[in-house]
Amino acid sequence: MFNHAVSRLKQITEAVRDAGSLGVADLAALTGASEMTIRRDLEVLAAQGVLERFRGGARSLLLRCSEPPFALRTDENMAAKRRIAATVAGMIADGESVVLDSGTTCLEVARLLHDRRITVMPLSLHAVNALSSSTSLTLLVPGGRPRPGELALTGPLTLASLSALRFDTAVIGCCGLSAAQGLTAFDLEDASVKRAAISSARRVIAAVDASKLSRTALAFVAPASSLDAVVTDADGDEDLAAAGVTVVTA
Amino acid sequence: MFNHAVSRLKQITEAVRDAGSLGVADLAALTGASEMTIRRDLEVLAAQGVLERFRGGARSLLLRCSEPPFALRTDENMAAKRRIAATVAGMIADGESVVLDSGTTCLEVARLLHDRRITVMPLSLHAVNALSSSTSLTLLVPGGRPRPGELALTGPLTLASLSALRFDTAVIGCCGLSAAQGLTAFDLEDASVKRAAISSARRVIAAVDASKLSRTALAFVAPASSLDAVVTDADGDEDLAAAGVTVVTA
DNA sequence: GAGTTTCGAACACCACTGATGTTCAATCAC
DNA sequence: GTGATTGAACATCAGTGGTGTTCGAAACTC
């Protein structure tokens, strides 16, 4: 999938979400692509659960409070994510055992850990795939049910895998973080996995780009005080610092 | 990776295994490729643990009793594997829960199950990846440590995942099968995972191409009598049939 | 330490794959 | 029944990845 195609998918997703529903011809005119291409795109997006096809067009299935699918988030804020990931990777010492959350920022962390001599348990199959070719690190796969698209592992098998282990460090991504509301996630299942990851680790690092600070999502994960450090690309957050959290600016 | 490249890798693997060690120039002459390409190939094979580089050449690390790496087996006996896989897939009914072993034959089964409405727990990340884009089936990932190359999940996390569940059917691949020696595998860890898979399933189907019948590998898994059916491409095996196993010829 | 060999990074080239557009027959809605 | 919509099939094109060549650096030999 090329950048070109991804940006068109994103454009379609947003246009359909804003309008509620749109016709194939409208989308073709909007994007400059042929109707056939639009149909193929809609098929892809329908498979991801973003929207629903009907004859002549598609209607959005995106709730206001849910996040866009993984494939459409991967190259948003790339630069910030890379910087944050590099800082997080630098905070991990050789020989450590790390549990790595799902999400695009944590996937960047995974890529940077590929050649390190550590033990990693990623909570998303995307990160598992990024790391499975490594010979230097010990890769542990948690059990679970992968959520479509996101490929984040959830459910009782995941919780059992986490509760059986104790990690030096947990690297957690999230959908919202503030001193008052704490760490929040869009998905309820995800939230309980994050909570389990946090409680099985001695040190907790949150990797959060600026767009997520001061935002709040549906599912509560943990209070800000349970984080040992927050790595972000924004200037130091006053409230978080006041809550006793070490804020690292990447 | 093209067919061309894979067959050259296979050629190199075999030549180095037979000779014990070979020089880059020898391999270039043998394959007709440039020395640079040979060096790149040797790097790939070294990463897979097939051989060890030294200045000017490489020496084989393949034990006589171990199997060649996954990437080199994928398109051997393709036709037979496809036929076997199709037969196995046909023996699985909608709504069933299936545990699917690692190996190239079972990976073909996974591909055929992609759009079925069943529950599948693959024991290899290759199969997980083949199935993770499906919306129709319920995919369960077992925990564990993926073995490099093969990406078969092993270890206590895998055993725990299996013992927590009860499946309708287990589809088992193996490295050797005979009425007298039973089911055998090259890897000890794999063997215990296969055993756990067998004991957590009500029905056990073995998918075995002809090259594995009458062969025996190091690790004993289970007696032939614990199999409910054997699907193979060879003509019905007399001994197995005599042992009370249903032999299905694909 | 000089000479030779091997290595690997960088670049150019080529084949192939995968995305896109076009056409057309089949299908669906009214 | 009529018109719009769809998806399969084929042609086209761009990007990717594998391969070869060159050349400077490193390593091994003597």
UniProtKB/TrEMBL annotation, chains A, B:
PROSITE patterns: HTH_DEOR_1, HTH_DEOR_2. The keyword Transcription regulation applies. Residues 5-60 form the HTH deoR-type domain. SMART domains: DeoRC, HTH_DEOR. It comes from the Bacteria. Keywords: DNA-binding, Transcription, Transcription regulation. Gene3D superfamilies: 3.40.50.1360, Winged helix-like DNA-binding domain superfamily/Winged helix DNA-binding domain. This is DeoR family transcriptional regulator.
